[in-house]
Amino acid sequence: MIYNERQIRTQSVRDLAEAVMVAARTAPKAKGRDMVEVAMLTDEHIEQLSRTMIELSEESGMKFLLRDAANVLQAEAVIVIGIKDEVGYCSLNCGYCGYARCEEKPAAVPCAMNGVDVGIAIGAACSKIADVRLDSRVMFSAGWAAKRMDVLSGADLVFAIPLSASSKNPFFDRKSPVKK
Questions:
Q1: How far apart are CA 46 and CA 75, in angstroms?
Q2: What percentage of the chain exceeds 90 in pLDDT?
Q3: The CATH number of the domain covering residues in 5-85+114-164
Q4: How many angstroms separate the CA atoms of 53 and 149, rounded?
Q5: How far apart are CA 75 and CA 27, in angstroms?
Q6: Positive or negative CA dihedral for 118, 120, 122, 124?
Q7: For residues 47 and 70, what is the distance between their CA atoms, to the nearest angstrom?
Q8: Which of 37, 40, 143, 144 can pair with 159 through a Cys bridge, CB separation 3.0 to 4.6 Å?
Q9: Considering only CA atoms, which of 71, 21, 19, 14 is closest in space to residue 43?
Q10: pTM to 2 decimal places
Q11: Arithmetic mean of pLDDT, 44-73
Q12: Range of weakest confidence among 32-41, 70-79, 82-91, 119-128
């Protein structure tokens, strides 16, 4: 049998995305508490993500969301990584959130260690992405839309990483939208 790369590209990206998800899962976590949530979007869910980004742009006036909404449509898969913390803090009393004791921190203020954990998981995912030479970009904007869509069932600090295999990374050298 002869396989042409163009015919198997999308499935190859999705197969590699599964390994990226495992890399995010196995990243170290503060106090060993595993609150990282990871998912993959494909097909109609990528289209829904793009539409949600357009809605967020209309609501917020942030035009870069329009560029990013068009951009994610060039992905064969989108990895979504976030933190789901039922307690809201990790009991280190480190003060990094601005409060001396974890119990003093308002629920709306994220635990700094959770931010570190999601960042390390993103770094582990990106390391795997680099290992397999996929096109990618970490996007706050797509993560914001994934959070709105509740892709990770109540997770906070959500980021997204669109993935592609193309002759030029579509997620870089992007034109910013013109402000009206």
A1: 8
A2: 72
A3: 3.40.109.10
A4: 10
A5: 24
A6: negative
A7: 9
A8: 143
A9: 14
A10: 0.90
A11: 96
A12: 82-91
